[in-house]
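Wed. Picked up where I left off yesterday with Myeloid associated differentiation marker. The coffee machine is broken again, so keeping this brief.
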Amino acid sequence: MPVTVTRTTITTTTSSSSGLGSPTIVGSPRALTQPLGLLRLLQLLSTCVAFSLVASVGAWTGAMGNWSMFTWCFCFSVTLIILIVELCGLQARFPLSWRNFPITYACYAALFCLSASIIYPTTYVQFLSHGRSRDHAIAATTFSCIACVAYATEVAWTRARPGEITGYMATVPGLLKVLETFVACVIFAFIGGPSLYQDKPALEWCVAVYSICFILAAVAILLNLGDCTNILPISFPSFLSGLALLSVLLYATAIVLWPLYQFSERHGGHSRRYSDVGCSNRHAYYVCNWDRRLAVAILTAINLLAYLADLVYSARLVFVRV
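Structure written out below (tokens, as returned):
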């Protein structure tokens, strides 16, 4: 059975898809005239314009450009699917839990567009010569920022409020799970080359920590999206609490070991950026090893804070089976 959450009391409320108190309208074109429907149209438009501008001039060469183009195309496609489902009233036939899927996707989309809005201009646009391609790339970045704000607004509108019964993914711990898995994916992207950790047991342990915690958080998300939380051998609340505690302990070791073995010269690291010969020159589409090490260290700290907040919020919430 699905798990729902309330902070203090169980109440019967009329859920609003917009989060603004208006009644939900499904299976009708009128759904597009509601605040949430208009917001999703803005998401659809901004992502469509972003990838169209870039595609029209071919300004998406290299790994970073490919990542940005994938982000905008993916967000456009899934947003279009959500609009079609709501316009046709197909929520009950959708293979995933409709109470959890839209807000989970909106949170991921906000993070995806945020990453594209930062990565694309800093690793690609600044290296373009002045002209039509650069102008299109700058405009695409602007629309990517608009999409990010639109998706973040949807998350703010539809997240759980005190006293409201809703799906787990709409609660703060559920949204933190999205953040944790997204940050882990970015970490994996930065450590894609084994040269950063190979033949160093302490660093290999850090990679194992990132992998284990990512898998556990992803399992929690998938169980909620599939309404399969009852298949666990233990209660789902106990699983969530144990997951958060275990992840905090594991990340606490990684936050110590990764910087120690990457930046301490006594342990074979590089304490200064200039000591890494690969960072001496500026290259388009390329991030040198020292910068990658620093990025992973920062992201490790971010995820540790996310898991700490997850542990605190999970302890405060009261889980109720319905």
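Quick read: The first strand starts at residue 3 and ends at 6.
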